[in-house]
Write a structure and sequence with these properties.
The protein has 170 residues and is α/β, with parallel strands linked by helices. The chain has 8 helices and 7 strands.
């Protein structure tokens, strides 16, 4: 969106394993755990929770990695137990999108309005508008950015560079 709205502020764009659309299976997978991870009894249990949730993206990581991972992505609650450190507003927005989101999707689908206050409604339109160098980093195992979406992005931005990271997901 910034590349579309204020291109003078950017020299290039690096897109890290995300595209202008999200596949339904990825949304469903994220929704299955987002905001539902219980408080762990201890840091070892937190590491096991993290591994269960994220090993789809990093399948070959040893348990020591997950112990370090939770130090960066969990916090201690008032009872001294580790819990995921995330903005609860993200979960709320995913589970209960504002009504205007459906309204915007509808008007975009019918082509009634393409932009509101200068902002493209359809993320693909914003992506098409990128005129500067663009690098896409794609995790080969990603379900958030599928190979099909990568191909569509390459058609929309033929000069975009692509780096695929083997054996990694989103």
């Amino acid at each position: 969106i910034m590349a579309d709205q204020q291109p003078q502020r950017l020299r290039a764009v690096v897109i890290n394993d995300i595209g202008p659309e999200l596949p339904l299976p990825a949304i469903q997978r994220i929704m299955a755990y987002a905001g539902r991870t219980p408080t762990a009894q201890n840091w070892e249990e937190a590491a096991l929770q993290a591994r269960t949730a994220y090993e789809i993206a990093m399948p070959d990581m040893p348990m020591e990695f997950w112990r370090e991972f939770v130090k960066l992505s969990y916090r201690e609650n008032k009872q001294g137990r580790p819990e995921p450190d995330m903005d609860p507003g993200i979960v709320e927005a995913l589970q209960h999108p504002p009504s205007y989101v459906r309204w915007l999707q509808r008007i975009n689908r019918y082509g009634w309005i393409k932009r509101i206050a200068g902002v493209n409604i359809d993320p693909w339109d914003s992506f098409h508008s990128i005129k500067m160098p663009c690098l896409l980093v794609h995790g080969a195992l990603s379900d958030v950015l599928t190979t099909e979406i990568v191909r569509k992005m390459q058609v929309a931005q033929p000069h975009m560079q692509l780096v695929t990271v083997a054996n990694r997901g989103h």
